[in-house]
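Posting this for the archive.
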Amino acid sequence: MPLTFQELVQGEQPVLVDFHATWCGPCKMMAPILQELKAELGTALTIVKIDVDKQPARAQAYQVQGVPTLLLFRAGKILWRQSGAMSKAQLKQVLQQYL
């Protein structure tokens, strides 16, 4: 059985949560960047995508005001957060501090 969202973010492995929306241009820009990073980082990082239109309560729980918003969790704590699109190089540089 797959882990629930809460179980994932409580774990020791870093989890990057991408709050996005289907109508959001910058979100579409981030999608291939996240896929490439997942391919490069492999099992060092879990990436979870949450559509704010389908899961508004989850977005509200983390005060997500705009999309895309990225949150990095480990052991239930938010280690880093950023709203807006960023380059793959920028994102990888941030993530490597926590991996």
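The mean pLDDT is 96. The two ends are 26 Å apart (CA to CA).
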